Amino acid sequence: MRSLPGAMLRGARRAAQHVRDDIATAQQRDPASQSGVQMAVTSPGLHAIWAHRAAHALWRREHRMPALLVAQASRFLTGVEIHPGARIGERFFIDHGMGVVIGETAEVGDDVMLYHGVTLGGRSMERTKRHPTVGDGVVIGAGARLLGPVEIGDGAQIGANAVVVKDVPGDAIAVGVPAVIRSGAAHHGLLEDPAIWI
Length: 198
Hints:
It is a single chain. By secondary structure, this protein is of the alpha/beta class. It is built from five helices and 15 strands.
């Protein structure tokens, strides 16, 4: 049997490492998790990010229609809509998943956690950067809406149902409609939904 070319082998190893990291992250952040196998088989958040990685790879190679078809199939199966153009970092986790929408020009850093019903949406019809940029280690509570090219700093936390239309500095807490910055630093408990302490 012929061996895979070096680049393909490296790509397969990188993909396998992503899967292992994603499962470990899901187990760490979901208190209902009982095993890695359970999370891999039943977590729509994991399935959505894995499908997104495939769609994003196609999108980067200018295979736009296949990328969109993968994204739509994932949306149908998981209830999570991530545009193939969105850039998402490592160890990203969506808890529950249903109703999450991430737009084309959104950028999400490493170690970010979203709860269900979060929207990273746009406010403009112009073909420009129109979706949020989310830094590393951010937690976004259930139902939050981040609209437009806002920047969310590293370690920030966005409260449940907040509507964010302005930048949020790192390690800050944003709550309300429209969101305002709450005094005090963000909580850094891995299993805390911002809605619990807001």
